[in-house]
């Protein structure tokens, strides 16, 4: 696992990106041996292979579908959906901050393609593109909790402005009703 340049926007996710010693896949979420210096397993190999030493789970969980699948039976559909949205928001933020065209994080590459598609899609404005609709919905979920002045997530600033306007409208209506009542 080689460290990336400190100015790489995905450095926190990419620092944890490693190669599984068994299947040779490059993964974010992995199990690292606390005794062996360079022994890491992907989540799948950790569950199927044995290792003699204690191991600790590392990574951001961005590519850990196995834990989601194992826990899916215990989770309600609403909880699974909520976790999926949170995970995809993490992907979106990482992809929007990353300027490395060859970023090794697969989730970053995928989300960059989605964002790039949305920027040039002709059907976006009519609401007929399912890819654009999903990205815009994801941006809305993100914008509801975002407090960044210069957020790199597409549409975030505009969505936050519209949300503020919607919050002000009921207040303005209440003020108007009070003024009307006092006349």
UniProtKB/TrEMBL annotation:
TAZ-type ZnF: 78-159
Main subcellular location of this protein, as a coarse class: nucleus
Annotated keywords: Metal-binding, Nucleus, Transcription, Transcription regulation, Transferase, Zinc, Zinc-finger
Gene Ontology biological process terms, A to Z: positive regulation of transcription by RNA polymerase II
A Pfam family it matches: ZZ
Keyword flag Phosphoprotein: no
ZZ-type domain boundaries: 13-63
MF-aspect GO terms: chromatin DNA binding; histone acetyltransferase activity; transcription coactivator activity; zinc ion binding
Cell location: Nucleus
Domain TAZ-type positions: 78-159
Keyword DNA damage: no
InterPro entries from the UniProt entry: Histone_AcTrfase_Rtt109/CBP, TAZ_dom_sf, Znf_TAZ, Znf_ZZ, Znf_ZZ_sf
Matching Gene3D superfamilies: 3.30.60.90, TAZ domain
Entry GO terms, CC: histone acetyltransferase complex; nucleus; transcription regulator complex
E.C. code: 2.3.1.48
Protein name as it appears in the record: histone acetyltransferase
Organism of provenance: Heterocephalus glaber
């Amino acid at each position: 696992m080689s460290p990336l340049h400190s100015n790489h926007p995905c450095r926190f996710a990419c620092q944890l990106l490693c190669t599984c010693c068994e299947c040779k896949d490059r993964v974010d979420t992995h199990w690292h041996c606390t005794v062996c210096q360079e022994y890491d397993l992907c989540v799948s190999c950790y569950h199927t292979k044995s290792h003699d030493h204690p191991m600790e789970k590392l990574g951001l969980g961005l590519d850990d579908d196995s834990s989601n699948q194992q826990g899916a039976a215990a989770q309600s559909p609403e909880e699974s959906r909520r976790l999926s949205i949170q995970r995809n928001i993490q992907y979106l933020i990482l992809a929007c901050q990353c300027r490395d065209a060859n970023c090794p994080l697969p989730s970053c590459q995928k989300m960059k393609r989605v964002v790039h598609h949305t920027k040039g899609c002709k059907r976006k404005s009519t609401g007929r593109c399912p890819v654009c609709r999903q990205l815009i919905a994801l941006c809305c979920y993100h914008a509801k909790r975002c407090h960044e002045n210069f957020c790199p997530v597409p549409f975030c600033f505009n969505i936050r402005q519209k949300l503020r306007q919607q919050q002000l409208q009921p207040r303005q209506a209440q003020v108007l009703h009070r003024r009307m009542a006092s006349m």
